[in-house]
């Protein structure tokens, strides 16, 4: 059976997990990554229900913060599926801190996982990217609007977009295009990982009541944008962004 093949990083939960499930249902072969073998196994068990055959899904350990993982990932992709038709660079971290409280290690980790890691992973992936190939970076509305305690996160997302704008020029002969999805406030595990309690998440959701959408977004509300950006309908898009924010930036 012939599949289109997509790599989705950081897909053991949240936006990445929903994207993996969506592409499986569309009939794509999905390779997804995570930083924890147990979470990869758990996600794979849940995702298998959306497959038509076991060789439609592969979960591979890859941490953006560990460069040694990149070459291993590419070797496994080459051996298991050959080439990629699309990549969603979704893995990321968020450590909310006031500038006055920011510590070097958290700033360094944020830049490594959200900027340097995706850049160098993409470089390592070049030999297994088809012509054409769509690359979608999961950015954020923080590149459009300032948020208190999000300075490091904002810088990391904006840095990748600026870097990849140049890649669109350099990689055009290889048929590689890079575009950006900018989600607004989305209910995922990132809030808990950032140290927010359930009551704080509920307060955050309530604070959005006056926006046009009136609530936090869900990961599933990103899927139609992914589908457009990875389809042949986006061949003319280079360095474009789709903002899915429920009206936050109006």
Automatic annotation (TrEMBL):
SUPFAM superfamilies: NAD(P)-binding Rossmann-fold domains (SSF51735)
Pfam family name, one: adh_short_C2
Gene3D superfamilies named in the record: NAD(P)-binding Rossmann-like Domain
Descriptive protein name: Short-chain dehydrogenase
Taxonomy of the source species: Bacteria, Pseudomonadati, Pseudomonadota, Gammaproteobacteria, Alteromonadales
